[in-house]
Amino acid sequence: MRFQEITPFFKGRLPGQLVIQYASHCNGDCPQCGMRRSNSSIPRTRLGKEQAKRLIDDAARHGFQALSFTGGEPLLFLDDLVELIDHATGAGIRYVRTGTNGFLFAGSERPDFEARITGLAARLAATKLYTFWISIDSADPEEHERMRGLPGVIRGIEKAVPIFHAHGIYPSVNLGINRHTGGRNPRLYEPALDPQEFSHLFRQAFSRFYSFVHSLGFTIVNACYPMSDEPFPSPEGNDAAQGGLAKVYGASSDDLVIRFTPEEKGLIFQALFDVIPAFRGAMRIFSPRCSLHSLIKKYRENGLSLYPCRGGHDFFFVEAGQGKIHPCGYLPDTFAALPDIRLGAKPAPPDCHRCEWECFRDPSEMMGPLAEFFSHPFRLAGKLRRDPAFFRLLLEDLRYYRSCDFFDCRQPPNLTAMARFARLLPPDRDLRP
Q: How far apart, in whole angstroms, are the C-alpha atoms of residue 200 and residue 413?
C-alpha cells in the first residue's frame, strides 16, 4: 500500500472513492434493475469521454484512490472505457474497476468466439485495470439466462474465464442477491414461510452459488446486497424512492425477486455470514463478515452499525444523465465539485444508515475504525467495548483480505494463505440440497 493511500486516515478521512455511471444504456433485461432494456420509461444517456476525463482529473488531483465505471452496461462503450481506464491509471488512481453483464460471452458456439474473447482479454490486460467483474445472478444457468435475457451466456462465461486467466486477468463474479440465487424456488415467495425454513433455503442458495461459480473457474466473488423497499410491500409501488432514497442510479427495482421484508433481510445477511467461511479457502470472497455482522444487528436487533456510510464525505457517485455529483447512487443531493480528500474531515460527521449499497457501505465499515483511530481514539475505544465481536471480525477480514492480495485481478489466488481462513459449518447448518 502506497503512503498516499493511507494519509487520509491521519486526518479522519478515508481514501476517496468515485463511482462513475458512464451510461444508462443496457442490453440486459434483469428484473432487479431499473435500467433493463425493456424499461422504456427511463432516458438512455451517456456521460461522454471528455466530461468523464475532467471528473477523473479532479478526483486524482484531490486524492481519490478508487474509481469504478458502471452503467447500464459499460462494455457497450468498450473503446471509450479502455481509454478512460488508461486515463485514470495514468492520473495516479490505482484501484480502477469495471464490469459487464456478460453479453459479449453469448454465442459461444460461433467460430469466432475464442478470437473475439481473446481480443477483449488482451485489450483489458493491456490496461492497469484492478478489478473486472462479471455479473451472475443464479446458480441455475437457465434461471440466470432467463433473468438477464442473455441465452447461452453461462456456457460462454465458462469458456471465457480461462482465456482471461491466460492473459493474466482473474475476473470477479458479482452476485446481486435475489430470491433465485440458488435457483428458482417458489417457497421463497411464500409470505408465511417459517423463518427457519427461509434461512435454511438461503444458506443452501449461497452454498450452491459459491460452488457453481467456483466450478466455472472464478477465483474472486462479491455479493451486492438487495436494494429493496421497506416496509414491504410498498403501498405506493415505489422502489428505492422509499425512506428518503431516490433512484439516482436506477439500479433498483420493485420486482419481488429483489424485494425483501426487513425480517427477511436479517435472515439473508445471517445466512451469508454463516456460509462464507466454508468457501474462503477455495475462492477470494470480498464480502466482509464484519459488515454483515452490523447488518444482522440492524435488522435482527434494531441496532445501528458502528460506522455509518461515508457517501457524500469520502465516497461519491456521478450519474450519466447530467454528470451531477451525488453522495451515492440513492440520494438526490448534489455537489458542485469533488472535495479534496487530502484536507481534514468535514465538521459534520457521517450519519447515514438508510440503505445497504455495498459499494459504499462495506468500505465504510471496514475503514471507518482506521480513520477514527487518528481522529477520535477515545470514541474508538468506546465502540471497541460496546461491540468487541465487530472488531474481532474486522481483524479477521483484514488478515483474510491480505491473503487474497486485496482482490487484485492480476494476481492468482494464494490457496495456501487462504486455507487458514476456511472453516467447516456446524452440523445444524447443513447445506445439502
A: 30
User: Residues 6 or more apart from 140 whose CB is under 8 A from it?
Assistant: 180, 182, 183, 184
- Burial class from Cβ neighbours inside 10 Å (0-12, 13-18, 19+) for residue 356 reads buried
Domains, the chain: 3-429 (3.20.20)
The residue type at 182 = G
How far, in Å, CA of 14 to CA of 344, rounded?
11
C-alpha cell at position 367 = 475503514
Burial class (CB within 10 angstroms; exposed 0-12, middle 13-18, buried 19+) of 300 = middle
With CA atoms as reference, report the closest residue to 295 among 385, 357, 205, 347.
357
| Pairwise CA distance, residues 160 & 102, whole Å | 10
Write out the three cell numbers for 281: 479457502
The pLDDT profile of the chain, 433 residues, written as one tens digit per residue, is 566 677 888 888 999 999 999 999 999 988 888 888 888 888 899 999 999 999 999 999 999 999 999 999 999 999 999 999 999 999 999 999 999 999 999 999 999 999 999 999 999 999 999 999 999 999 999 999 999 999 999 999 999 999 999 999 999 999 999 999 999 999 999 999 999 999 999 999 999 999 999 999 999 999 999 886 444 443 333 344 345 566 788 777 788 999 999 999 999 999 999 999 999 999 999 999 999 999 999 998 888 889 999 999 999 999 998 899 999 999 999 999 999 988 877 667 888 998 899 999 999 999 999 999 998 999 999 999 999 999 999 999 999 999 999 999 999 999 999 999 998 765 545 444 3
Nearest-angstrom CA–CA distance, 146 and 405: 35
Cα(46)–Cα(34) distance, integer angstroms: 16
Work out whether strand 220-224 and strand 284-285 pair parallel, antiparallel, or are unpaired. Answer: parallel
Alpha carbons 314 and 311: distance in angstroms, whole number: 6
Q: 3-state class of 335 per DSSP?
A: strand
Give the three-state DSSP class for 91: coil
Q: Are 19 and 317 in contact (CB under 8 A)?
A: yes
Q: Which three cell numbers stand for residue 333?
A: 443531493
Residues 425 and 63: their CA atoms lie apart, in Å, by 42
Identify the residue whose cell numbers are 495516479.
Answer: 92
What number of residues does the chain have?
433
